[in-house]
């Protein structure tokens, strides 16, 4: 692909290959992950460019985004957070805008902001600096308040991404332009990118006024820019202030200064329509009995495991298995599966399995699976992490039946997001149950727009029930969500064209060629693949690959 084809898609430069690398990292933790992790698209820049050019062609030079769909994901506090699902090409454009803007704006941010900072000198595929190191720095610096017998104000922002307004985003970017040292022509291009971002966010956000897409790297960068005025104001007022995403900590000489700092912070946040989460606000000192709760990385067990892994010796790392098992069980029993400690365990056990250092059929593996399966009802918020590990463990027939029984119990399986992950887990295991097949077909028939329907298509395909999917060919509509259409096409990849005739003329241009792209892609090796994770983290890469939530 020529350089110009890469750069001249919109009114600002787009580096397709670099943006695809950043997007690949971002998509690893999607709440509704793609069944083949978009490998057919992420490794095909030419096809991507062709579709984007087609978009501009049919819309007479204007990039027209697709429709967004709003789903819900359970929170640990029994509430719900929204997720805004858009098509792959819109995700690419969102990432491309921020990949372009970040080198200009990140250097202007306070060095007291320790999350999602630009990785200027590291490998191209990582947009952000090492996240574990940044979090550890955040913890270690703020822990000094306890060590030095000071007070530490700890708070976080209430519904952080949901309350950020589009107008505040535009205003924040424009207000910082004067501080960027670059020619006027470049600043004109930057303004074009900001303008494009504003137009598209009105279609991608929760509504036309506010609500950034959550669990997106681009949104984290944008939020940093919006909060820049708060960060700078608090430091300007003399506060020893630090922030990691929406976690804010201020080191104070005593409790009274901490309360004064909190009042000031609240007043400043109001200017942006934001507020603190009072339920997660506290003031610590050396006599507090809940200090460990706010400094998980200082945990002695994590330190022991981490030391073993840093040795990079497979023999030493293998000795961490029983420690990891005990630590993971402890986190589950304490309902702490949303903490960094639990994700720490999940990632390391998965890496041990993929590196052939952990036997997925061992007694320990069976005990881990039993422990996790029992928690689907009580800790639905962690289903993605549960299924992530269960996919790698060798589950017994009784364990698989227990998972299936839970999924079919409508009194317990309340969350479409959870059902989505469990269906894909059972698809991966190729678990067959006559009752589950009927349950799956009923879900599709009752409401094809339900968020778990794409996973139902893949489940049926994985157990060789493609004929059951083919029954829905006549009901296919272009109005289906992008992921529903994509999974439907993937599940029917071996269906004869004659049977697909009722779909002709209904498939959106963004989805045409889905099956041929998969079959022509070298990573698929010409095989029929319905579900596969092409992203495997090995021992040597564990510190680079880990996500901001781990």
Summarize, please.
By secondary structure, the chain is mostly helical. The protein has helices at 3-7, 16-27, 39-42, 45-58, 88-105, 131-147, 166-176, 184-204, 217-226, 228-236, 255-270, 300-310, 314-318, 321-333, 340-354, 363-373, 383-390, 397-408, 416-428, 434-446, 453-462, 466-470, 482-491, 514-520, 542-545; strands at residues 69-74, 80-85, 151-156, 240-244, 247-252, 282-284.
Descriptive overview:
This protein has 550 residues and is mainly alpha-helical. Helix content is 50%, strand content 6%. The chain has 25 helices and six strands. It has helices spanning 3-7, 16-27, 39-42, 45-58, 88-105, 131-147, 166-176, 184-204, 217-226, 228-236, 255-270, 300-310, 314-318, 321-333, 340-354, 363-373, 383-390, 397-408, 416-428, 434-446, 453-462, 466-470, 482-491, 514-520, 542-545, and strands at 69-74, 80-85, 151-156, 240-244, 247-252, 282-284. The strands form two sheets. A four-stranded antiparallel beta sheet has the order 4-5-3-6, with helices on both faces. It starts with a helix and ends in a 5-residue tail after the last helix. 38% of the residues are buried. Mean pLDDT is 92; it is low at 1-6 and 543-550.
